[in-house]
Design brief:
Elements: H1 3-16, H2 18-27, H3 39-48, H4 53-66, H5 72-75, H6 80-86, H7 90-104, H8 110-113, H9 118-126, H10 133-142, H11 155-165, H12 173-180, H13 187-200
Domain HhH-GPD: 47-202
EC number: 3.2.2.21
Keywords: DNA damage, DNA repair
C-alpha cells in the first residue's frame, strides 16, 4: 500500500467509525510499509520471527553479505555453518532452506503467487514449514500490496484495538478478526494504523 492508498482507506473507515476518526486525530496517519515481492522478503520474515527488530537487522545484514544476488539459488549454496555463523537458529536454517528449495523446484511460484486471491496466496505460503498465518498475511499485505487482510494474532494489534475501542481486555485473535470485519475492504490500512496507534496513543 502506498501513501495515497493507505490514507484513502483510513479516511473511508473513519467516515464510518468515530473511534477510528478520533484515533486519527490523536496520532495522525502512519507511514506506508512496503516490501519487495520475492525470496528475500520471505526470508526476512523467517529471520524476524521471535527476535527483536535490532537482532533481525543484524542477522539480515550478515546473511545478505553472503549471497549478494539475493536469489534462492545462490542462498542454497550456503552451508549450514555459514547460516549459523550469521545468526540463524537450527530451526530457521531448515525453514530458510525449505523456502529456497520450494521456490527453486516450483512448489512456490512467486509469479503466480502475485496473481492469486488473498486466501489462495495465504494458503500457498502457509504450506511451507515455518510460515504461519501471521507471516503469510504480513507478506501479502506489504509485498503483494493486499488491502483487506488483518493479522489478528499480532499482540500489538490486539492491544491497540483494546485501547482504540475501549475494550476491557485485549481481544483474542478470533475476536480481533471479527471486530476488524467491520473495516473491510480496508483492513490492511487499519492494521498499519493500529501499529502506529500502539506506539503513539496514551495507554489506558
Amino acid at each position: 500500500m502506498d501513501r495515497d492508498t493507505l490514507r484513502r482507506g483510513l479516511d473511508a473507515v473513519a467516515e464510518q467509525d468515530p473511534q477510528v476518526a478520533a484515533g486519527l486525530a490523536l496520532v495522525g496517519y502512519p507511514e506506508p510499509r512496503l516490501s519487495d515481492h520475492g525470496f528475500a522478503t520471505l526470508l526476512n520474515i523467517i529471520i524476524s520471527q521471535q527476535i527483536s527488530k535490532e537482532a533481525a537487522a543484524s542477522i539480515r545484514g550478515r546473511v545478505e553479505a553472503l549471497y549478494p544476488s539475493g536469489t534462492a539459488a545462490e542462498f542454497l549454496t550456503l552451508s549450514d555453518e555459514n547460516l549459523r555463523g550469521a545468526g540463524f537458529s537450527r530451526p530457521k536454517v531448515a525453514y530458510a532452506r525449505g523456502l529456497a528449495e520450494a521456490i527453486e523446484d516450483g512448489r512456490l511460484d512467486i509469479a503466480i503467487l502475485a496473481e492469486m486471491a488473498d486466501d489462495e496466496a495465504v494458503a500457498a505460503i502457509t504450506a511451507l514449514k515455518g510460515f504461519g498465518r501471521w507471516s503469510a498475511e504480513i507478506y501479502c499485505m506489504f509485498a503483494l500490496r493486499r488491502e483487506d487482510l488483518f493479522p489478528g494474532e499480532d499482540i500489538a494489534l490486539q492491544e491497540a484495538m483494546r485501547r482504540l475501542k475501549g475494550l476491557e481486555s485485549r481481544p483474542t485473535a478470533k475476536h480481533a478478526r471479527a471486530l476488524a470485519a467491520a473495516w473491510s475492504p480496508w483492513r490492511s490500512p487499519m492494521a498499519v494504523f493500529l501499529w502506529h496507534y500502539y506506539r503513539g496513543a496514551p495507554q489506558s
